[in-house]
Automatic annotation (TrEMBL):
Keyword field contains Ribonucleoprotein: no
Record keywords, A-Z: Bacterial flagellum, Cell membrane, Cell projection, Chemotaxis, Cilium, Flagellar rotation, Flagellum, Membrane
Parts of the chain that traverse the membrane: none
InterPro entries recorded: CheC-like_sf, Flag_FliM, FliN-like_C, SpoA-like_sf
Molecular function, one GO term: cytoskeletal motor activity
Main location: other
Record-level GO BP terms: bacterial-type flagellum-dependent swarming motility; positive chemotaxis
Protein's cellular compartments: Bacterial flagellum basal body; Cell membrane
Pfam families associated with the record: FliM (PF02154), FliMN_C (PF01052)
Location of the Flagellar motor switch protein FliN-like C-terminal domain: 260-329
Protein name listed in UniProt: Flagellar motor switch protein FliM
Native organism: Anaerotignum propionicum DSM 1682
Any Gene Ontology CC annotation: bacterial-type flagellum basal body
Family classification: Belongs to the FliM family.
Amino acid sequence: MSEVLSQSQIDALLASVVGGGSIEKEVSKDAGEKYRKYDFYSPKKYTKDKLNIIKNTHENYCRLVSSRLNSLLRASSQVTLITVEEERYYEFSNALSDNDALTLINASLLSKDGGGTVIMHITTPLMLSMIDRMLGGKGEEPQNVSSQYAYTDIELLLYENITKYLVGVMKDGWANYLEIDFGIEKIETSHGLMQEIGMDEIVVIVVIEVIINNVAGKINVCIPSTLLTNIFGILDNKKSPNSRSSGGAVDHTSRDIFESIKESDLEITARIGDATVMLQDIYDLKKGDIINLNRPQNSFVDVFVEDNIWFNGKLGVHNKNMAVRISEINKN
């Protein structure tokens, strides 16, 4: 298919014909500015609405982190959400240095849908500055920190102590949507050996900027698609509990309720009939007397479950005991 020229290209072409010049460079420059390359290998999985949910939760998280850091480090901090992006995990992994420390966070959903692992990365200069303040220093930005900097054992202990404060407020950040428990699983310094998330798995990266006394750094939170699928599934069920799921399956809320109560004990009573008699007649009753129940001989027996009639049946004998054979279900 031939290329469609823009109005600016047509004007340049006419000017070139009149003036005898060349427009090849202008056409190519103009065409390059009009188009954006789309990666069909990594199609977008989450809509803007779902990404906005993550954005809102982490905006709340940023406010909580700022308050927590102010009290922990006794310094003024500014915590800002920069971006929420969807990408492949290998893009996140490739941007890390070999010795970067990652915090593996276990996220537990309070439901049968399980949970997953969230990864947090804090840039080295920012973490070293916070460690310096924890040890009584001024928390100034470290000089000449190599990208291959390796934390010492003592620094890793302090690293974990600081991240406990950051992870501790994650639950409150999600509180407006659903209840999730977060806990540190471990601090990993050899991220190349990690197998918690597949390299081609789609993840959402949350980038948070932290400024403490003119020392700037970033906190990157990596949320895998397996966890997000469970989270968004729960949120969708909350919005429309009676609707069908995206896969076309019937919602299992009623079945789940039945599963939880099916072991309960219920009293079943079979009533043959009833009659109204005077107190004098009851007083005069003796062995051998007959009470008329005002029902035909072959009529149904009412079967009650608790105080409600559920079935009608016929009296009989089973294993030498009186029994009732269910004849019909009372739909009322």
